[in-house]
Amino acid sequence: MIADPALVISEDNTPVVVIPQENIPTLIIPQENTPAVVFPQGYTPALVFPQGSTPTHILYPTRFYVLGIFSFLAFNQSAFWLTFSPVSPSTQIYYNIPSSTVDLLLNWGPIIFIPCLPLVYLLLNKRNGLRRAVIVLAIGGLVSTALRVIPSIVTSPSSPRFKDISLPFLHAGQIINAACGPIVMAPVSQLSCLWFGPSERTRATTLAIMTNIFGSTVSFLINPAIVSRPSNLPNLLYFHLALAFIGAVITLIYFPAQPPTPPSVAAELLMQEGKQSSNSGFTDFMKGLRACMSNLSFVLLSTAGGIMNGTFAVWAGLFSVILYPEYSETQAGWFGFFSSLAGIIGALCLGVLADTPQFRRRLKMLILISFIGCFLSVIWFQLSVRSIFYHAPILGSTQFTIGLSLSLAGLFQGAVSPLIYEGLAEIMYPLPESLSASILVQWNNIACVSLLFIASKQYILINLLVLIVIAISIIMIIFARIIYRRQDEEEQKKNKTIIGMEMDRNVSTIESHP
């Protein structure tokens, strides 16, 4: 008979702790979905304590609905932002405005993004913050598109005051849509962490990011097709209004704040913090910001990703002038389209790869390979066009070689974006994912706005600058260190849970001892 606490080996060689208590009835503490504990003959009744908890992390099918709605709204926001630039000549004729005004309608995006981002972060970290932010995104898109169609309803292009009436509504619509930009970019890591399991997070983050980019990519094809002549411009605005209306209605009908139970340990912590953060505000934001900016690896990785993406975005918008006169604007537009499409494909492929067990802890390697691939592709393009150092291309170029070099550059640049989001979330865990994402996209927009002021006149300089920025980013990535704090926490808790479940299960299988 066992008289003292002992480590008993069960049939399958699993250790079980048994604490006997003489003459005390057995106390069984049942757990949900746990089989009854049966003690073998010959044992003193004992008080058995499980060695770990047995929580179950469930993945709900609703996660795909949530990601789908968010992705649709992200697609809309980008498409609304790029309404007028792909049809700039028709816009100038219809509203009787110069090209600089069309450029300003586009530039409201990064300009308004910067001051609005901290406000979005505060909203996201309130109770049910993700749901509130998505509702604001849906309603903001509806209001912005509705404002833009008002001039076409209340007046006509033949009116002498049509321009004066239209411009305030156009600017207001673009500004409101631009204010929704941070809601599209900041919560992507938070959404994937809250709703998806550890083996799905990178893919979910990738899809949320890429649908936003896809909105602008498709606009280069759809907008000119709808606006075949200037008088058709209102048709495009009504089409966008219909998209915004559909998104708003679906979101208001049903968009859950969070899953019934957390799908992972990280989501569990995020949901607990959400319940306790009803009074969080600017002070908490500043504390988190200081923590991020005092982490050297975070600063290196976020700066590298932010300035690279911002510079690449401005550079991609200058393909028509960089390639002139060898290639037409139409050809440059197709080059930009395929570069953007390649970025989406690259992000999806690398997102799937990063979610596999073999590469889940190799984000730095994947990021570095992508940066180097982008750098080599841009060098190939640089040698195929005139630059600040030489007036004639060093390498001969054709539509195929230019298109291939830009597509490869877009492929690697797009592939790296979601990996940086996830890498920053790992480094700064348990701080909210929305904080690290906010800082990343802020760097992106600061770089973008800074370069917009010199892009139109110094396009050859921008063509060289993108190469320099990628090279500097590679150096920063080399010195950055990604510590997988979030994955470590999840694995530790998972191991404790497995041990507890094994202990609970094997108590009932102990055989009789003499």
TrEMBL record:
SUPFAM superfamilies: MFS general substrate transporter
One CC-aspect GO term: membrane
Cellular localisation: Membrane
Membrane-spanning segments: 64-84, 104-124, 133-154, 174-197, 204-225, 237-255, 296-322, 334-353, 365-383, 403-423, 435-454, 460-484
Annotated Pfam families: MFS_1 (PF07690)
Key words, A-Z: Membrane, Transmembrane, Transmembrane helix
UniProt xrefs under PANTHER family: MAJOR FACILITATOR SUPERFAMILY PROTEIN-RELATED, SOLUTE CARRIER FAMILY 49 MEMBER 4
Protein name: Uncharacterized protein
Organism: Adineta steineri
